[in-house]
Amino acid sequence: MKINSFYSLFICFLILINQNIKAQSITVNAAQTPQQLVDNVLLGMGVVATNIKVNGNPALANTPMGNITLFTNTNPSFPLPTGLLLSTGNGVGAIGPNNSPSSTNNIPPTANVSIDPHLSAIANATVTNGVILEFDFVPAGDSVVFRYIFGSDEYPEFSPSSFNDAFGLFLWGPGIAGPHVLAGYPNGGENIAYIPGTNIPITINNLGPGATQFPQFYVDNTNGLAFGDAIQYDGTTTIMEASAAVQCNQTYHIKFAISNVVDQSYDSGVFLEAGSFSSDAVAVSVATVSGDTTIIEGCTDANFIFTRPQTQLNDTLIINYTITGTADSLDYDSIVNPIVFLPGNDSVNITLHPILDGLNEGFESLIISVEIINPCGDTIISQGTIWIGDGPIINVLENDTLVLCASDSVLLYASASGGFSPYTYVWNTGEVGDSIFGSINQNGTVDYFVTATDFCGFSQLDTVTITMNQILNVDSISSIPSSCVPSGAVSAFVSGVSGAPLYTWSGPGANSSSFINASVWQNLSSGWYYFTIEDDICSESDSAFIDLLDSPQASVLAIPNNGCSPLDVVFVNSSSNATTFEWDFNDGNTQNSQDTSAITHLFTSPNATIFNVQVIASQNGNCPDTLLIPIDVEICGCTDPGALNFDPNASFDDGSCIQPEPIIKAPNVFTPNGDNSNDAYTLSWENLISLELTILNRWGNVVYEKNSTDLINDEPAWNGKNQNN
Fold this sequence. Notes:
Blueprint: H1 6-23, E1 27-29, H2 34-42, E2 47-54, E3 68-72, E4 82-87, H3 117-123, E5 127-139, E6 143-152, E7 166-172, E8 180-182, E9 185-191, E10 202-203, E11 218-220, E12 235-237, E13 240-245, E14 252-261, E15 268-273, E16 283-288, E17 294-296, E18 302-307, E19 317-319, E20 321-324, E21 339-341, E22 347-352, E23 364-373, E24 379-389, E25 395-398, E26 401-403, E27 407-417, E28 424-427, E29 435-440, E30 444-453, E31 459-468, E32 473-480, E33 488-495, E34 502-506, E35 520-524, E36 527-534, E37 539-546, E38 556-559, E39 562-564, E40 567-573, E41 580-584, E42 590-593, E43 599-603, E44 609-619, E45 622-634, E46 636-637, E47 652-653, E48 663-665, E49 684-686, E50 691-696, E51 702-708
Parallel strand pairs: 17-24, 26-31, 39-45, 46-47
Antiparallel strand pairs: 1-3, 2-5, 3-4, 4-15, 5-14, 6-12, 6-13, 6-15, 7-9, 7-10, 7-14, 8-9, 11-12, 16-18, 18-22, 19-21, 20-23, 23-24, 25-27, 27-29, 28-30, 30-31, 32-33, 33-35, 34-36, 36-37, 38-40, 40-43, 41-42, 41-44, 44-45, 48-49, 50-51
């Protein structure tokens, strides 16, 4: 039971820690009774409590209370990890973050303690709601000590004020005397919860931002300044320590009391550290990851924790301990003995590492005992016990699978037991996880190997086997070629049929009129055909191709295949294996023929056009073969816009352009006198593309010469000067 619960306890432990760290607030649990909280949380070593009462009523000690609760903390900024919380309101009101300067959580209303004379005395006012926890105890040593933190939402704005919330720790018994009267104790009692170095009680007015003589004992937590999100209270004291000298084995009465003053608002509380109410003794406790006292060879360790009283912190203490039990020194690594407490240290840890020896020894015990004589002369023995278990034998269960039909997707799984969960699984395929998909495609077996490893690293290899036993088989499948008239066939030969078979065919000839449930299918055209046979157990599939015999091949030559519209084209048909020809001339005209003789067609068009002539050669419409023949028809004519016979629709120049006659006129006079009127000698012209002007003098010498093909922008013009200007 303990071994199997190991990992679940470990996971719960980690989850709780992780949640608290993430939240960074204390948690408060009101499920335990005050009796349980005193015995299991508050009391430390050397103290036994009896006659527990809450608000003077012993019956309430066995009833869970909203303002006597267990607190736990993982926020490192708040110094107490766990303990007992007494609060004027409900304990949940102390949970952080500090998001209110006036937090009050007293619904349903908490107890009325206004009649308590001891609280009223230290508050110097009328107390209202709060809680009083008291009990008798017998110390084993000559002193008692505990640690606490007082906090309140009255801080800082009501310090000082009339709202003087108070906390008292009152002690009665042999050797104790004081002003606080209690029946049965004629010498009275004293309040030992006071400001260090004084006899001043812990209240809002005595210790807080308004009490300037004690600033070193006040912690400002406004807006979470000191403790982050840990607690709600706006201010607290530092860690306080209360102690008193007592007489061994004598009965004492102690009373923890906290209350609001004047009103019932703005909660206050006191955090009492777990185990801090102690008397002289050295305790031995055990800590394991699982939370119980069980560890496993080669897997988990244990810590023995030695804790001494707070009253001995200033001294060096050397403790010898004894080891007993059924485990021997070969079952674990050596550990230190004796242990030494240095001044200021209240605990010492030693770690026990169990050795994996491979022997089946069952559970063996290891007991560490510490024996001391307290100041009263009593012998006190503290013990811690660990049980060491053998490393586990891991068992792996798997699903060896029988398949009767070939499959490429078989679910395989493995399940481990006998170790410490969680388990990891690694397969020989490299895949991880407790299940994978395997495959098998022929009769016989295929093995897959899986290694299961538990949390401690213990492993076991196992085999998962797939076995296939398929008797249905397609022995062969054949086909007969087809001509263009469907004349082919496919047939299948099978064996190992169980029951009545169902044949399923698909392919070019598969339709409702031609499909048959048989091993042979006839009168089929060319193409791929797919076959499946299914019996009472499984199915098998195969396929076959039906070839095509002497299919038509279209072949046509166009003479010519380009020219001017109208264009007369002769189509010479040289197609083979065809009996029918369908012609589409792409100009709205079609023609069907039954022979391969040449045909002629005249193509006309007002614009340049490519006619894509289509011819389909077939055997009476079967096995058609299609051929496209492009015929390029041009519009021929003069394409020169300057010609007399220019044809704007012509796409091809046929050389027929007629150009107009050039006309030139020469002036008989010009006046080059610089008046910008008729200063240059130029020719007037029509229908010219170039002009050469040459001027000769009387002796035949050239005085001006120019040739131009740009008569608009660069026309020849003589200014009357010779070449020497």
